[in-house]
Write a structure and sequence with these properties.
The structure holds 5 protein chains of 5 kinds.
Chain A lengths: L1 H14 L2 H11 L1 H18 L3 H27 L6 H18 L4 H20 L7 H21 L1 H4 L12 E2 L2 E2 L6 H21 L2 H11 L1 H6 L4 H27 L9 H14 L5 H16 L7 H15 L17 H19 L1
Antiparallel strand pairs in A: 1-2
Helix pairs in contact in A: 4-9, 4-10, 4-12, 4-13, 4-14, 5-6, 5-7, 5-12, 6-12, 9-12, 10-12, 13-14
Chain B lengths: L1 H6 L8 E8 L6 H20 L7 E8 L4 H14 L2 E6 L3 H13 L4 E3 L14 E3 L4 H15 L4 E7 L2 H17 L5 E8 L7 H9 L4 E5 L2 H14 L4 E3 L7 H7 L7 E4 L8 H14 L5 H20 L4 H10 L1 E4 L2 E4 L11 E6 L2 E4 L2
Parallel strand pairs in B: 1-2, 1-3, 3-4, 4-5, 6-7, 6-8, 8-9
Antiparallel strand pairs in B: 10-13, 11-12, 13-14
Chain C lengths: L1 E10 L2 E11 L4 E5 L6 H8 L5 E8 L2 E2 L5 H6 L2 E4 L11 H8 L6 H14 L1 H5 L10 H13 L5 E5 L7 H16 L3 E5 L3 H7 L2 E6 L2 E7 H6 L1 H7 L4
Parallel strand pairs in C: 3-8, 3-9, 6-7, 7-8
Antiparallel strand pairs in C: 1-2, 1-4, 4-5, 9-10
Classes of the chains: A mainly alpha, B alpha/beta, C alpha/beta, D mainly alpha, E alpha/beta.
Bound molecules: adenosine-5'-triphosphate (ATP) (2 copies) and magnesium ion (2 copies).
Family (chain C): Belongs to the ABC transporter superfamily.
InterPro entries (chain C): AAA+_ATPase (IPR003593), ABC_branched_ATPase_LivF/BraG (IPR030660), ABC_transporter-like_ATP-bd (IPR003439), ABC_transporter-like_CS (IPR017871), BCA_ABC_TP_C (IPR032823), BCAA_Transport_ATP-bd_LivF (IPR052156), P-loop_NTPase (IPR027417)
Keywords (chain C): Amino-acid transport, ATP-binding, Nucleotide-binding, Transport
Chain lengths: 357, 362, 235, 291, 256
């Protein structure tokens, strides 16, 4: 009786909720919605073939990937990194140096970039295990600065301040993928799809739950048998690898990188995207990147005031939606698989039978 | 609408002829980009008063690349996407120019940089020009000042750790070696980074090495503090700079410490030449400060581009390029003609500071 | 002395207090009982200004204190031992107590305050240099109560003071409530241990789902069969 | 030469310490890394420059700039951070807010003053003292004296005064502090005022030392000072001093022995080494986490 | 040897000896309570048992293996799980997810399995969800399955902590003041629940100040004061022990 009352109360309060409506309907029509989005994204370059807009679109895609990567650290595991530009730099440098100096193909060099970044993630993850909060953040910040300094001073490998020039466009089946032939755009889409799905799958598994547990209460997590060390390092590694992929793509998009491409401002930009979109969510990264990357472009006419307004946007967003634009807790019930539902029904029947006996 | 836009470049339907000025308009080196824009506007005004070019008015469109390569790559895409730009004056530093130039080349849009000095820049392609000397020429002039005019032998180099600074210092070293003048040598080379105003470690090391002249490969904002901090420990030190330190701000920032600092320039605003005098006073009236060397090179760059358009008789990209390659232009920075790579050769004036003023060396 | 009229408080869209009327007279001990989530702590939060009242008024000594800042309310002579203890974890026991007497400027009064608290809870005296956060649960509860006494309040609000305390200390706490009451301190008391609470109180209110469902003389309430069943654990 | 470099490093370190104190003060009460501190510092220096150019005389100009910069700190807290506290929003929202503020201040400075480097009058320019073969300028000595004095004062405020106790209480548990009668928002604003003042003092001293100001001046210096603050144990004022000096000297040494291009990452290298050994910095207390 | 055997464990914090040579034993299927004045060292004992603190002296032997100074996650794996005196739920997660986190160590699929969504992943994941829901049913929280832990009333949060501890698959549950903040009726319900756990074969160690719970449910009771054991025995014996009454109970009716 008591339980039933409660349940009714709950469903009442849930029904009022706006977020619930959105989520409910999105969930209901997810297949048509996905197809619609897919088609729109695929035909986009056919409708708008302006190179500048395509360049920006690819850039947005890259930043979505970067945000997804950082989100694993910040949004899932609760480790605030202020040096993500370091991982981006590692990916970008490794891939473009291999491509320009040793003539590796794009896909091979990206693979090596991922491995190197994973090692760097491991390297950074391990010593930071004992650190928490601000202490961890500043070490990641330092990591970013150190990577930059290495890139600047290791002339024989990185060309120092001269940077890496003439980074070739990726080639697929002998075709050069460029902005002009939309190849780079589709490459970005494909990579973005993979990264997004990957993040989703990780999130919806025991790994994702372990991340979240560590974020909310590390001690309680340990008490549930979670190997905090392993998962923290794993978060670093995954995050680093994704950033490296995006970094490599970025290098071919711009065609030139130097140490100053990867400053602290890049790290804070990625972080801002994560927070603004809604940390811990995947949808938020898309919206966050769309806003923060396109804003400086659409607001060029503001000139000097451009970044004043940018700062204002950050402040106002945080003031009115500190949890991020799309940062809400899911209101629809936890999704149970068919098997579970079936089994639960059997349970319920058995219970009824036994009580009616 | 988009399609019309792309074709309007070479059709004559447009009301105006647009010239893009790209450079740092905000941020760290904004004074240069804004200088470019001002100079370009002045040149365009002069033409417009005379009736424009090909009977159309000239419009200067400003693009901000914040002197960053990645911004420049986007900006260049934007400029070529506009479709109705007749040519680009700009990008400021060599590294940034090198990122943007391939995009212009690929789209066959003429670019003239008033400031790029890296040897590779003009090699990007046949649409890429510069109205600035290649760095080796200027470096040779600086060494000449240090060795011949100041009569010093122990050269120290202090260079800013940017692509320009690294490259310049490398070339200085090579040149000194090649010259092989008796007793002249590089005694020490120190690199410094932007974002720190404390140069004492580098200076102390140069001083220990016994340098009697320091070639400072950096802009005014490096030369001034280095001179200041160096004179505190060695009042007799001589400092030689480059043309990009030729700016009123050098004097404001350096105060007494920059007395006697020397450098080679292509353009000297105190020149007695009537043409230059008129230009300088007009510029000062309009914008409240004297034009720097790079600004003046931008001014001439616009003049050359417009002459080329006039000569080509259309804004057809290829015709403009071909005409530009042929232009022989008498500007405030001297008689200018591009060689087969799109480079120029200029006469250097040696300038020093005396009593808080720039004067010609004798 | 304290008068609450038609008080409504929300947490976002959760309606936690739905029109509370309550009064505490000078010199009284008043108990507030009710099950988990009834809104007892919310009422104290609203009185102390931590939670904002949507509507209704709270008057203390004739002054309207609705929705004034907590620090201001403290200065008028209300002091609270809050739910969840809320000690300052890195500060020492002594510093915690010193902050309790933040509004007191008289050095002598502060010294007396320390003495009184230390006498009451010798454990706190033993550990006056220990960081409050490393104290055991019960020790922290003692600290929270002691801290509330430091400001010599006229009205003392106690939110489940016996929580986590050993049985003998619980007895001591109720003795304390009586003894400071006899010194003229008025007390509003929330307790899960309704039996004991009612036994020391003059009057009592029962809260259910954000409304007062019953009020009256403490003995009458304790005798009420519904209360006995629901809150006192007697069949 | 090494002696000279160590001394130069110490002066530089004092400058960092002055900046680090600002981070520590704000962190010490809000547990917030105030990323706008570097910009506030630049603001202080530019205000001083502006006031000096108005012919007020250098001392009144500097003093006025302290007040203005302090008020800027209060303004930031009141307009941007207090509303976030009211809503109990997640800490990282405040962090992003301070990044936004930093953007605004720095770009407004650029708009009004231009991005180029500008000359700042020399302070305490009374000449040079030689001890052995080490040359020490009066400017350096004054920087050290003023910094130490300021830090001593701040330590006294935090440790010995009632408002200092209130500050520590607010850091630990703002809600409880409020219940104890502490006007938490006032105390926080006061802390921001102190932070602003310390940034302005740093701005005037450092600009007077190098005689250069520009809108971007707080960027790298701010990051390094932040590292210094953490190195010492963020929240601790003596920690900020020791951290600052350590960063200053190691940077100077790195510039001497490795080359100036390595100096910027030196602060972080030292920081990481220290944190691996002492995860809460040199003077930092371990957070209390009793289970 | 008993199921869980604790021999002379000691913990010092600076000058304070929080736990001083405490020994006790717990047999399989028993409910054993630890009581004592505030600050006696009860929670500290739990912290030592679960590997949160290293111990300064002594040994802890569980099911024949020494487990002292092992990492907490290893202790959980060995089969000991706990709740906290101050509730430590994963507040941002749903109720069912809280319990799922508890099943973490019993889950065997690999990272690759989860990225590739292999059959093994799906099978195991379904099984764990089912386990979680069944545990919630048994504890009466099933209808709050989709709520976020933060929004639960206090009493339900306590129950969820227990559910989460059960989900780890542990056989020994350490409950630290589970009845704190509950009214008499609610603690009576809790009492029933703990009994039912015992029937299901769990071994339970309980810290509690509510004598109506302790005296009713415990098979045996250990009393410590100032870190030292002062008495142990059956509830009745403890209730009438002079030392215990003086140090701890005062004049409270124990309901035993
Ligand atoms: N910070 C909060 N945010 C949202 N809802 C809250 C918050 N605090 C309390 N509530 C809700 O408000 C209602 C009243 O809670 P309150 O804490 O006042 O109850 P209580 O009577 O003190 O219960 P307890 O005996 O558990 O302390 C409950 O439904 C609770 O879930
Ligand atoms: N980290 C620590 N540093 C210093 N002292 C500590 C620390 N942890 C616990 N103590 C002290 O050890 C003693 C035992 O604490 P513990 O938490 O075990 O008590 P308890 O028996 O659980 O008490 P309660 O019933 O009040 O919860 C207490 O006096 C406490 O102050
Ligand atoms: Mg309550
Ligand atoms: Mg305890």
């Amino acid at each position: 009786m008591n339980g039933k009352e409660r349940k009714e109360n709950k469903s009442q309060s849930v029904k009022k909720n706006f977020v619930y409506y959105i989520e409910y309907n999105v969930n209901l029509y997810k297949v048509p919605l996905a197809i619609l989005c897919g088609v729109l994204l695929l035909v986009f370059p056919k409708i708008i073939s302006d190179r500048y807009i395509l360049t920006i679109s690819v850039k947005i895609g890259i930043y979505i990937m970067l945000a997804l990567g950082l989100n694993i650290l910040v949004g899932y595991t609760g480790l605030v990194s202020l040096g993500h530009a370091g991982f981006v730099a590692i990916g970008a440098y490794t891939a473009s140096l291999l491509a320009t100096k040793l003539g590796f193909g794009f896909f091979l060099s990206i693979l090596v970039g991922m491995v190197v970044a994973a090692l760097a993630g491991l390297l950074l993850g391990l010593p930071t295990l004992r650190l928490s909060g601000t202490y961890l953040s500043i070490v990641t910040l330092g990591f970013g600065e150190i990577v930059k300094t290495i890139a600047m001073n290791w002339d024989s490998v990185t060309n120092g301040t001269l940077g890496v020039k003439n980074i070739p466009s990726p080639k697929l089946f002998g075709i050069k993928l460029t902005i002009a032939n939309h190849g780079l755009y589709y490459l970005m889409l494909a990579m973005l799809l993979i990264v997004t799905v990957f993040c989703y799958l990780v999130y919806k598994s025991r790994t994702g739950r372990a991340f979240l547990a560590i974020k909310t209460d590390e001690m309680a997590g340990t008490m549930m048998g979670i190997n905090v060390t392993y998962y923290k390092v794993l978060a670093f590694v995954l995050s680093a690898v994704i950033s490296a992929v995006a970094g490599a793509l970025y290098a071919t998009l711009i065609g030139y990188i130097d140490p100053n491409t990867f400053t602290f401002d890049v790290s804070t930009l990625i972080l801002s995207i994560v927070i603004l979109g809604g940390m811990g969510t995947i949808r938020g990264m898309f919206v966050g990147a769309l806003i923060l990357i396109s804003f400086p472009e659409v607001s060029r006419s503001l000139m000097d005031y451009r970044f004043v307004v940018y700062g204002l946007i950050l402040i106002l967003m945080m003031r009115f939606r500190p949890q991020g634009l799309l940062g809400w807790r899911s209101q629809i019930p936890y999704r149970l698989s068919k098997n579970v539902k079936k089994q639960l029904e059997i349970d319920a029947n058995q219970y009824q039978e036994s009580s009616s006996l | 609408g988009n399609k019309g836009k792309t074709t309007s470049g070479d059709s004559s339907s447009a009301e105006t002829i647009k010239i893009a000025v790209a450079g740092p308009m905000t941020g760290d080196n904004a004074e240069y980009g804004i200088g470019f824009t001002n100079a370009a506007k002045m040149m365009a005004d002069e033409w417009n008063k005379k009736g424009g070019v090909l009977g159309k008015q000239i419009k200067i469109v400003q693009y901000d690349d914040k002197n960053s390569s990645e911004e420049a790559a986007t900006i260049a895409q934007k400029i070529v996407s506009e479709g109705d730009i007749a040519g680009v004056i700009g990008h400021f530093s060599s590294g940034v120019c090198l990122t943007a130039a391939p995009i212009y080349q690929e789209n066959k849009l003429v670019e003239i940089s008033p400031s790029a000095s890296h040897p590779d820049y003009s090699l990007v392609g046949d649409y890429i020009f510069r109205n600035n000397t290649v760095i080796s020429a200027e470096a040779a002039a600086s060494i000449d000042i240090a060795v011949n005019d100041l009569g010093k032998k122990k050269i120290g180099i202090i260079s800013i750790k940017t692509d320009w600074g690294t490259n310049t210092s490398k070339i200085i070293k090579e040149l000194v070696e090649k010259l092989g003048i008796d007793g002249v040598s590089i005694v020490a080379h120190e690199e410094v980074v932007e974002g720190s105003d404390d140069y004492s470690p580098a200076i102390t090391k140069l001083n220990q090495a016994g340098a009697d002249v320091v070639i400072c490969a950096g802009m005014y904002n490096l030369v001034a503090p280095v001179a200041k901090q160096y004179k505190q420990i060695n009042p007799d030190i001589k400092v030689v700079g480059f043309s990009n330190s030729y700016s009123q701000q050098l004097i404001e920032l350096g105060g007494l410490a920059i007395e006697g600092v020397c450098f080679p320039v292509i353009f000297f605003s105190e020149s007695k030449d009537e043409k230059i005098k008129n230009y300088v006073s007009a510029f000062e009236k309009e914008f409240g400060n004297k034009p720097s060397a790079l600004t003046s090179q931008a001014y001439d760059s616009v003049g050359m581009l417009l002459s080329a358009i006039e000569k080509a008789g259309s804004t057809d990209k290829e015709a403009v390029r071909n005409a530009l390659a042929e232009v022989d232009y008498e500007g405030v920075t001297g008689q200018t003609k591009f060689d087969e790579n799109g480079n120029v050769n200029k006469q250097f004036v040696k300038v020093t500071i005396q009593g808080g003023k720039f004067v010609k060396m004798n | 002395m304290l008068k609450v009229e038609k008080l409504h408080t929300y947490y976002g869209n959760i309606h936690a207090l739905k029109g509370i009327d309550l009064e505490v007279n000078k010199g009284e001990i008043v108990s507030l009982i009710g099950s988990n989530g009834a809104g007892k702590s919310t009422l104290l939060s609203t009185i102390t200004g931590i939670a904002k009242a949507q509507s209704g008024t709270i008057t203390f000594k004739g002054n309207n204190i609705t929705n004034t800042a907590p620090y201001h309310i403290t200065k008028t002579g209300i002091s609270i031992s809050p739910e969840g203890r809320e000690v300052f974890p890195s500060l020492t026991v002594e510093e915690n107590l010193r902050l309790g007497a933040y509004i007191v400027n008289d050095k002598k009064k502060i010294a007396e305050g320390y003495e009184r608290v230390y006498e009451l809870f010798p454990r706190l005296k033993e550990r006056y240099k220990q960081s409050a956060g490393t104290m055991s649960g019960g020790e922290q509860q003692m600290l929270a109560i002691g801290r509330a006494l430091m400001s010599n309040p006229e009205l003392l609000l106690l939110d489940e003071p016996s929580l986590g305390l050993a049985p003998n200390i619980v007895l001591q706490i109720f003795d304390l409530i009586k003894s400071i009451n006899s010194q003229g301190v008025t007390t509003l008391l929330i307790e899960q241990n309704a039996n004991m609470a009612l036994s020391v109180s003059n009057r009592a209110y029962v809260l259910e789902n954000g409304v007062v469902s019953m009020s009256g003389d403490a003995k009458e309430i304790a005798a009420d069969p519904r209360v006995r069943k629901a809150y006192l654990g007697h069949a | 030469m090494i002696g000279q470099q160590i001394f130069n490093g110490l002066t530089l370190g004092m400058c960092y310490a002055l900046l680090a104190v600002g981070y520590s003060l704000v962190f010490g009460i809000l547990r917030l890394v105030n990323f706008s501190h570097g910009s506030i510092y630049a603001f202080g220096a530019h205000t001083a420059l502006l006031l000096v150019s108005m012919n007020l005389g250098i001392v009144p100009a500097v003093l006025l700039s302290l007040v203005f910069t302090g008020l800027l700190g209060v303004l930031i807290d009141k307009t941007a951070l207090e509303p976030l506290r009211k809503k109990n929003s997640i800490p990282i929202a405040s962090l992003i807010t301070t990044i936004g503020i930093s953007n605004i201040i720095q770009n407004l400075l650029t708009v009004f003053f231009g991005s180029e480097k500008k000359a700042f009058p020399a302070l305490f320019n009374f000449g040079v003292i030689s001890i052995g073969n080490i040359q020490i300028t009066w400017t350096q000595i004054c920087i050290c004296i003023v910094s130490l004095g300021l830090m001593l004062l701040l330590v006294l405020v935090v440790k010995k005064t009632k408002i200092g106790l209130a500050m520590r209480g607010c850091e630990q548990n703002p809600k409880a502090a409020n219940l104890m009668g502490v006007n938490v928002n006032f105390v926080i604003s006061f802390t921001f005022f102190l932070g602003g003042v310390s940034a302005a003092i740093a701005g005037a001293l450092i600009s007077g030392y190098y005689q250069i100001v520009y809108p971007n001046m707080g960027y790298m210096a701010g990051l390094k000072a932040f590292a210094a603050a953490v190195l010492g144990g963020i929240g601790s004022i003596p920690g900020a001093l020791v951290g600052g000096l350590l960063v200053g000297v190691s940077e100077s040494m790195a510039a001497t022995f490795l080359g100036s291009t390595y100096r910027d990452c030196m602060a972080f290298v030292i920081l990481i080494i220290v944190l691996i050994v002492r995860p809460n910095g040199l003077f930092g207390k371990k957070g209390i986490t009793k289970v | 040897m008993a199921y869980l055997q604790v021999n002379g464990i000691t913990k010092r914090f600076g000058g304070i000896v929080a736990v001083d040579k405490v020994s006790f034993e717990v047999n399989e299927g028993e409910i054993v309570s630890i009581i004592g004045p505030n600050g006696a060292g009860k929670t500290t004992i739990f912290n030592m048992l679960t590997g949160v603190y290293t111990i300064d002296e002594g040994e802890i032997i569980f099911d024949g293996c020494a487990i002292h100074n092992h990492k907490p996650q290893e202790v959980v794996k060995a089969g000991i799980s706990r709740t906290f005196q101050n509730i430590r739920l994963f507040q941002d997660l749903r109720v069912v997810e809280n319990v799922l986190v508890g099943t973490h160590i019993k889950t065997k699929y690999s990272f690759l399995d989860s990225v590739l969504r292999t059959r093994r992943f799906r099978g195991e994941e379904d099984e764990k969800v089912l386990t979680a829901i069944r545990i919630l049913k048994s504890i009466g929280l099933d209808d709050r399955r989709d709520d976020y832990a933060q929004n639960l009333p206090y009493g339900d949060q306590r129950k969820l902590e227990i559910a989460r501890a059960i989900a780890t698959g542990a056989k020994v549950l350490l409950l630290d003041e589970p009845a704190a903040g509950m009214n008499p009726q609610e603690s009576a319900e809790l009492l029933q629940f703990i009994r039912s756990l015992q029937k299901q074969g769990y071994t339970i160690i309980l810290i509690e100040h509510d004598m109506s719970v302790v005296m009713n449910i415990s098979d045996r009771i250990y009393v410590i004061d100032h870190g030292k054991p002062i008495a142990h025995g059956l509830p009745k014996e403890i209730a009438n022990n002079e030392k215990v009454i003086e140090a701890y109970l005062g004049g409270v009716s124990t309901g035993a």
